[in-house]
Amino acid sequence: MTEILRSFPIVSPDKGVTRQVLADAPDLMVVSFRFEVGAEGALHNHPHVQSTYVESGRFRFHLNGEEFEVGAGDSFVIPSGAMHGCICLEAGQLVDCFTPRRDDFL
């Protein structure tokens, strides 16, 4: 079996945030987000189901009107269409998986 490894650029979608696609296929995408303290992932929604794993740091998330804090080792799922966003409380990294792939990130 042959594996295809691609290198994706690091982009800055918001102040204090960088994003890098780590792997993608039509049905799945893995993306790394790095946040500085105080940086925000603006409230938004999308049709993709998203799972989020907190690699490091601490974040306050807003998900469909509820608020909760997560830290290293935590993970959760964001349903399709759910309004969500976060504020970084302690610098860190989130690893998100999207299904299907987020073509707007390519």
Automatic annotation (TrEMBL):
Coiled coil: none annotated. Keywords: Dioxygenase, Oxidoreductase. The keyword Transit peptide does not apply. Pfam families: Cupin_2. Residues 33-90 form the Cupin type-2 domain. GO terms for molecular function: dioxygenase activity. The keyword Oxidoreductase applies. It comes from the Bacteria. This is Quercetin dioxygenase-like cupin family protein. It comes from Donghicola tyrosinivorans.
